[in-house]
């Protein structure tokens, strides 16, 4: 009995597991992540609990920052990283309303003018985006719409200036001023959009992507230049 007890004491507890082996045909893989440190207050903060005023102000600040990036264009991913369509929608509505004002005293229906701006901006942006994707661009669909929409800001400023010039002087001098303003803002919009979209296009196909963008802003510029109240 003492010998049996000694054998039981010296025998390993999980001796039977030594004979268990894992077949080499069965892949064993995985990833174990261990959180390091504690979560910051910003990570734990939920936007669902914030007041509506804070949400609106945060979105307005984000839109304003994107407007600043457009007015001072440089190769940056600011518009691509946190894309939204609020800015393009605001600019599109402003352009449509200001261009529609030219027929305010007319007996004709003003609906087509308002719809025309929406069709040109949104349909044109969609066509440019599809063209970019077909040429091998790495930018997403909504990121492209965001950039193209926000880069209409210089042309919106041009329309405001042109309307003020028309009020002051509608003659030849006024037309020359409007022409210079529209050309400047047209170049600004084109350069700003290409600055944001340049890195997402294949190097040997950038010209094929820039050409539709050129036409897109040229049509909007022509509408602004030919606008007469």
Protein model, in words:
- The protein is mostly helical and 229 residues long.
- The chain has one domain (52-71, 78-103, 111-227).
- Helix content is 65%, strand content 0%.
- The chain is built from ten helices and no strands.
- It starts with a helix and ends with a helix.
- Mean pLDDT is 75; it is low at 30-38 and 40-44.
- Pfam families: Yip1.
- It is found in: Golgi apparatus membrane; Membrane.
Question: Could you provide a short overview of the structure?
Answer:
The chain contains 10 helices and no strands. It is mainly alpha-helical.
Search tags:
globular; single chain
What's the alpha carbon Rg, rounded to whole Å?
31 Å
What separation lies between the terminal Cα atoms? Answer: 115 Å
Biggest sheet architecture: none
Report the order of strands and helices: HHHHHHHHHH
Q: Which residues form runs of ≥5 with pLDDT under 50?
A: 30-38, 40-44
Backbone shape: globular
Count of discrete alpha- or pi-helical segments spanning 4 or more residues = 10
The count of β-strands is 0
Number of domains: 1
What share of residues are in beta strands? under 5%
Helix content: 55-70%
Average pLDDT rating: 75
Helix and strand content put the structural class at mainly alpha
């Amino acid at each position: 009995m003492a010998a049996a007890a000694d054998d039981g004491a010296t025998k390993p507890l999980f001796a039977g597991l030594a004979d268990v082996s894992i077949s080499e045909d069965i892949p064993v893989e995985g990833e174990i992540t261990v959180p390091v440190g504690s979560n910051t207050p910003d990570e734990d903060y939920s936007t669902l609990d914030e007041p509506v005023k804070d949400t609106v102000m945060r979105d307005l600040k984000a839109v304003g920052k994107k407007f600043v990036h457009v007015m001072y264009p440089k190769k940056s991913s600011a518009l691509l990283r946190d894309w939204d369509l609020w800015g393009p929608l605001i600019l599109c509505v402003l352009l449509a309303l200001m261009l529609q004002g030219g027929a305010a005293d007319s007996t004709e229906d003003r609906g087509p003018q308002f719809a025309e701006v929406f069709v040109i901006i949104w349909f044109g942006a969609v066509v440019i985006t599809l063209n970019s994707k077909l040429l091998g661009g790495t930018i997403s669909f909504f990121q492209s719409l965001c950039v193209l929409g926000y880069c209409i800001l210089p042309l919106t400023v041009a329309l405001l200036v042109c309307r003020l010039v028309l009020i002051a002087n509608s003659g030849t001098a006024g037309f020359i001023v409007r022409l210079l303003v529209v050309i400047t803002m047209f170049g600004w919009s084109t350069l700003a959009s290409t600055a944001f979209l340049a890195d997402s296009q294949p190097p040997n196909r950038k010209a094929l992507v820039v050409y539709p963008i050129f036409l897109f802003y040229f049509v909007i510029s022509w509408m602004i230049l030919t606008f007469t109240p």
